[in-house]
Every structure is written in structure tokens, then in C-alpha cells.
Amino acid sequence: MAEQLIFLNGEFVKKEDAKVSVYDHGFLYGDGVFEGIRVYSGNVFRLKEHLVRLYESAKAILLHIPYTLEEMTAIVVDTIRQNELLDGYIRLVVSRGPGNLGLDPASCPKPNVVVIAEQLALFPKEMYEAGIPIITVATRRNRPDVLSPQVKSLNYLNNILVRIEAQLAGVSEALMLNDQGYVTEGSGDNVFVVKGNKIVTPPASCGALEGITRNAIIELAQKLGYDMREELVTRHDVYVADEVFLTGTAAEVISVTNVDGRVIGTGVPGPITNVLLDEFRQLVVRDGEKVYEEEKIS
Ligand code: PMP
């Protein structure tokens, strides 16, 4: 791989030179938005969907992104090309930009736009083969009417608190409940519960981010003829499920084999989870924005 180059406000700069001001309100207040995107064999998976979500998040916080969606598409593709990346992870960040120490975003005339494309440390193979244990945590999901989980903002403290609780309990991921006690999602992934032929994932309105992977899995499940639903999920539903799995850009589809000490199903990744993981892995290499001409890939 070539020396890593970061897109920073219209230029490609070396990683060590990719710096932003400590007065950036993204740094001071978490004021900004971001996306995490995957490239598979030179195809950017669902780039349009990720960018639409980015622009909607920015709109929700009245942050103007100084590029059109088409321009941003070209920037992402160009960043991947500059780094000669075939498989990897893209982090796109738009922060409010540098201002003064006050809260007022009006003191930040110019947002910072950053695109990082790099190789991804994949989740260990054993995690997919064995599944993972998780817990539910005391930290509740931000209420949608307070800070919408649909806004993928730089304020990820809600999620970080969940991750800290999980790690203190000796597991790597956890489920957040909403203020009514319904299951919403993990700290960085959506959750699906399988019972018989029925697959359920919590509706976005209950406090789950509308994940791009989640949507792809819903489509695949419907195509494969499963009874796919978006319905409220309780902890009891999770405990007595045949299968539970998490979905996300980084995790893809990962089986959960234990929740709060309750063994899920037979304690190993279930057949529906395995089918969906397999179908998803086939989908990602054929779907998405092509970065290179054919000959580069072969
Ligand atoms: N929920 C949260 C809170 C997340 O941060 C993510 C990762 N973006 C997801 C779910 C999964 O979304 P996606 O499939 O778009 O990565």
C-alpha cells in the first residue's frame, strides 16, 4: 500500500500532517457528524446511503457541508484511489470547525472535512465461528426527542459509556435499552432476534440507528423468504430467542451466543445467522460504488 494520504479540506496530506485546530468545536463539544464505510474488493458498499445519512445528520444539526453529495462521492472514491486501497475502512468526518471557546457555532465559519481510508483490523475469525457473549447495560439509549440516534454525531458518549460498562463486565459489546426498557441496539451495531422463521429487529423509532448493514440484512432476509419484522423487542425476547446477531459496518453480521448469562439457542452461531452472514459477504463484493477499472482488481 502507498503511503497513507488523508483528505483534509480539499487536499491530500500525509497522515502525520493531517491536523486540525484544538479550537475545532468537534474537539471542544463533539459538534460534527461522521460516517464509517467499508470498501470490499474496490467497491464502496452502499456509499450513496452512507452519504445520504451523513448529509441528513448534518442537516439536523444545521451544519453545512461545503461539498455536494456528488462531490463528496468523488472525494471518497479519490481518497481510496490515492491510497490504492482495495479492502478497507473509510472514516468521513465533518466537524463544525475552529471557532472560539463559546458554544456558539456561528463562531465557526469553516467546517473541517476529513476522509481517512485505511486497512481495517478485521474482527477475529473466532468471533464469527464461536459467537460472542454480551450483556444489557444500565446506560439507556439517548431518547430520540433529546438527541436523535439517527444523527450520527461526533458526540458518541452514550455509546462509549455502554462500551465501558461492557468492558468492565468482561465482554466486548452490550445492548442498550430505551427509556421504556425496550431493546434498542448495541454501542455500535444493530441487533436482530430470530425465533423460528421470524426475524425481528427494533424499529428505528425506538432509538436504534437505521444502520446501513441493518437495512441490507432486512432486504436479504425478505428476499430469502423469512418473516422479517421491525417490532419492539424486550429483554425476554432476546433471552428466549433461537438466535441473536448484531450487524454493523465493522462487525458485518456477528452471532451473539450469550446475553446476561442466558445461553442463546444452542450456544453456537445459528443457521439463519450463518446464512445471512454468508449472503451479506456475497452482496458486499458485488454491490456499491466501483473505485477502479476492472483490470486493477483482477
Ligand atoms: N448503531 C450505532 C450506534 C452505530 O454507531 C452503528 C455504526 N454506524 C450501527 C448501529 C450500525 O450501522 P451501520 O450498519 O450503518 O454501520
UniProtKB/TrEMBL annotation:
Requisite cofactors: pyridoxal 5'-phosphate
Keywords: Amino-acid biosynthesis, Aminotransferase, Branched-chain amino acid biosynthesis, Pyridoxal phosphate, Transferase
Annotated metabolic or biological route of this protein: Amino-acid biosynthesis; L-valine biosynthesis; L-valine from pyruvate: step 4/4; Amino-acid biosynthesis; L-leucine biosynthesis; L-leucine from 3-methyl-2-oxobutanoate: step 4/4; Amino-acid biosynthesis; L-isoleucine biosynthesis; L-isoleucine from 2-oxobutanoate: step 4/4
Catalyzed reactions: L-leucine + 2-oxoglutarate = 4-methyl-2-oxopentanoate + L-glutamate; L-valine + 2-oxoglutarate = 3-methyl-2-oxobutanoate + L-glutamate; L-isoleucine + 2-oxoglutarate = (S)-3-methyl-2-oxopentanoate + L-glutamate
SUPFAM superfamilies in the record: D-aminoacid aminotransferase-like PLP-dependent enzymes
Gene Ontology biological process terms from the UniProt entry: amino acid biosynthetic process; branched-chain amino acid biosynthetic process
GO cellular component annotations of the record: cytosol
Enzyme class, first EC level, given as a word: transferase
Entry-linked PANTHER family: AMINO-ACID AMINOTRANSFERASE, AMINODEOXYCHORISMATE LYASE
Function: Acts on leucine, isoleucine and valine.
Protein name per the record: Branched-chain-amino-acid aminotransferase
Gene source species: Priestia taiwanensis
